[in-house]
């Protein structure tokens, strides 16, 4: 009897599994969407793999999740290759086990992107979230032109005015978007912003809402046309407030993968400083 009680207590105190955390995040996203008068399906979850172990990433893919985000270029390239290999191997080994796997994973570059790393990202990232200067946009345009493929990007706005964060001032967003819109191989899909780390999530609401107002104003004046439809705001600590404020894309890491850092370390490019001021997911 004592052993049974001990086992029951241990079960109650056990850490939630990745599947349970993922289900919890999806439900929280759904509830926040309903509170803002939208459907759960209108919100895209980017699972940030920065601190996840590869086994965790594979498990999430097996659960059917298709959108993954990385902060560092080298990690993005390596993880994308590993997941592609995993999907191919799984489908070859068993048609039954591979039946529910996504046909394709969409990778997102969410961290600061240095101009000398642009070519490594193209062809891997479906969406680059962190375009914050004309010089970076021009570098992407040049690289995309050589590959003869269009690249979808978000303009990163420093809506909170933090000197430690990347992004352009909100007042400069329209001018940059108009310049990018003249580039043949770039397609601006919307805005991205990051919030400062704080325990008071409600204090972030006014700035999230001002960013949404900027997004809506840019849509009204026709910046980038009909394809300007993504507002990427919110991370693990504040995604519910961001959704309630108008976000339709959120970047969530530790709420899905847990707080523990991955035991395996991916080798970064020399001089890669994309972690400075970049989106850390929590």
Walk me through the structure.
The structure is a single chain. The protein is 40% helix and 15% strand. The protein has 282 residues and is of the alpha/beta class. The protein has a single domain (17-257), classed as Alpha-Beta Barrel (TIM Barrel). It has an 8-stranded parallel beta sheet. The N and C termini lie far apart (42 Å). Mean pLDDT is 87; it is low at 6-10 and 262-278.
Helices, strands, pairings?
Blueprint: H1 2-13, H2 18-35, E1 44-48, H3 54-62, E2 67-70, H4 73-93, E3 106-109, H5 118-121, E4 125-131, H6 134-147, E5 151-157, H7 173-180, E6 186-193, H8 205-220, E7 230-232, H9 239-244, E8 249-252, H10 254-257
Parallel strand pairs: 1-2, 1-8, 2-3, 3-4, 4-5, 5-6, 6-7
